[in-house]
Amino acid sequence: MSEKVKILLIVPVFRRPEVTRICYQGIKLLEASAPEWCQITPLIVWSLKEDFLKIPPFWLNVYAPNKCLGLKMNVAVHYAAENLAFDYIMQLDSDGIIHPALLDIYHQYFQAQVPFFGCNRILFHNEPDGRTLDYTLMNSGVWVTGRAIHRDLIEQMGRELWYWDRESGVGVNMENLIRERTGTDVRIIYTAEPLMIDIKGPDNVSKFEHLARNPRESREVFGAEREKLLKRFNVKIKSYANPEQ
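-> structure tokens emitted (245 positions)
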């Protein structure tokens, strides 16, 4: 591995400019606050010209058709492996933010060159009504945002980390495909507090109401605790229900 850990942050975008704008704010903060031992490089994967025109200057980008998310992500991985220098690919959904403190927790796993790892805890914030969940996966698996995949494992997978024809469940599908082809399981990283956030809008595929129905893994946060958790991500998160905010 190079002296600095080179992390390629792959972000697929498709419409939803309100939440994508917040995601981009988070990426800029992550770049600015990244520890000295790592280098963060965003790669935006776009399908529509309107999305391309909103990509900040100097960020890398690649076109991929939006036929299904598995295809879109594999196109990005092929492009990256062919053209870019990196040690790890890290995933970030276009409605997500990663707090820089997560990189410090990940440092030992990057240094040990763990092939595949991620975090099992995240905040879900529902912009239409301002509700927030602290959600921890209890059984197995990690969230899509924050997953890190070593370049050697990517090459071992033939640069195909997803089923080409799958749209939904890409997180679980990725874990299963990597396990089937290489015998590699994802390493689950636990955090004392949520260091990632997923912002839900009215057109999300996975609805906030569905997530809130699982009290074993999710806990709704209110008042001062909620405001403290949201504030630490240092981006302006407004509610569609309260556009004056």
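Confidence is low (pLDDT under 50) at residues 239-245.
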